[in-house]
Design goal:
Order of helices and strands: HHEEHEEHEEEHEHEHHHE
Number of domains: 1
Strand order of the largest sheet: 3-2-1-4-5-10-9
CATH superfamily: Vaccinia Virus protein VP39
CATH topology: Rossmann fold
Shape: globular
Radius of gyration: 18 Å
Distance between the termini: 33 Å
Helix content: 25-40%
Low-confidence stretches: none
Structural class: alpha/beta
Length: 262
């Protein structure tokens, strides 16, 4: 298999989009932080949960490695893109995690280990891969999950009735978003200079995961778009949109699932 290169080099595209649409609003980071807190609250209450091994499946440039450093005895971080992997290694060193962290340049779908992990964290990976590879990747993560373990998954959320697909790119320095078909999305996956995005329909995703032996024990949408926050004008927007399945379907750029064997 040819080397994998993440299409958004140095996260230039995503940073441009955040700069344009979020305008330094702290909400975006606060919304993500609330998801991390939700993960740690759940495993803290989960009877018999062991803080032994954690797998960051698709760690990117390593920006979230720090959240695991004090909790788990051993951390494994994997990333297929060579440039991002090198940055993640540097990040682990900067966080003082080198002695307890094993780094591997490999995709989550191809990862193989005799170890079983108590927490598998997979953040914003599956929305950028070929649609035929999503379930094989999730099956591989399930295979590496300990019997009492948890998979924490974040990805992009479709607010339509089915999965949706988009393509993000810069045009004369200005961020552009366009809707594409599933076939176009799959053709763009290995392109450079663009960021193809798969938005998953939550109910269908949970059904597909149940078919491969993963039950959903928590679900939440987050990162409500700026223009929708301006219209809704709710002081606690994430709790508001997660108050009912109807609102969850209509709002949230991203979604979070906690998965267990079952």
């Amino acid at each position: 298999m040819s080397p994998y290169h993440y299409p958004d080099f140095k996260d230039v595209l995503i940073l441009k989009f955040l700069e344009k649409f979020e305008k330094d609003d702290p909400y975006w980071e606060e919304s993500e932080r609330a998801i991390l807190d939700r993960i740690f609250d759940y495993i803290g209450r989960k009877e018999g949960f062991r803080y032994e091994r954690c797998l960051d499946a698709g760690c990117g440039r390593g920006r979230l490695l720090w959240v695991f450093r004090k909790l788990f005895r051993v951390i494994t971080a994997i990333e297929p893109d060579g440039d991002r992997f090198a940055e993640a290694v540097e990040m682990a060193e900067a966080f003082g995690m080198s002695e307890k962290t094993t780094m591997q340049q490999v995709s989550a779908e191809e990862f193989a280990s005799d170890d079983r992990f108590d927490l598998i964290f997979c953040s914003h990976v599956i929305q950028h891969i070929h649609t035929d590879h999503v379930l094989p990747l999730m099956k591989n993560l399930a295979h590496h999950l300990s019997d009492n373990g948890v998979i924490a998954l974040t990805t992009c959320h479709s607010t339509g009735d089915v999965d949706q697909y988009g393509n993000n790119y810069l045009q004369n320095g200005t961020p552009v978003r366009e809707t594409v078909s599933r076939e176009e999305f799959n053709n763009l996956v290995n392109s450079s200079g663009v960021l193809p995005v798969h938005y998953f329909h939550a109910e269908q995703m949970m059904s597909d995961f149940a078919d491969i032996g993963l039950k959903t024990v928590d679900f939440r949408v987050f990162h409500v778009a700026r223009e929708e926050r301006d219209v809704l004008r709710q002081p606690d927007i994430d709790n508001y949109v997660n108050a009912s399945p109807d609102l969850q379907q209509r709002y949230g750029v991203d979604m979070f699932l906690l998965l267990e064997k079952g």
